[in-house]
Amino acid sequence: MRLQDQQLARQLMRLRSDINKLKIEQTCHLHRRMLNDATYELEERDELSDLLCDFPMMSSFGLSTPLKLIGVTKMNINSRRFSLC
Asked: Which of the given ranges, 16-25, 35-44, 68-77, has the highest pLDDT on average?
């Protein structure tokens, strides 16, 4: 009986560890996608600013909403430093 309890405990600990690893991988993937999207938007804005001299800042070139929600600001992205508020 004690041996079975220990085996079950080990199995549960492995499952818990696997679930935590999957959560971390998923979170990293989502953050990577958000940062790639923000980088792409900034590069696109820079390319357009090279083509057009005096165009007003359009709201579509601002930060994406998910980045704003986690506290990343334009200044942080432009200087390649990311901070969370």
From this structure: 16-25
Q: What angle do CA 26, 28, 11 make, to 5 degrees?
A: 50
Selection from 46, 73, 69, 70 nearest residue 57 by Cα: 46
Containing structural domain, residue 38: 2-78
Q: Give the Cα separation of 85 and 69 in Å (integer).
A: 10
- Confirm whether 84 is domain-assigned: no
pTM for this model (two decimals): 0.49
In a domain, 62, yes or no: yes
Instruction: Encode pLDDT of 40-83 as tens digits.
Output: 888 888 777 766 655 555 554 455 666 667 766 665 555 555 55
> Quick count: other Cβ atoms within 10 Å of Cβ 9?
10
Residues in the chain: 85
Encoding tokens for residue 23?
């959560």
**What's the structural domain count of the chain?**
1
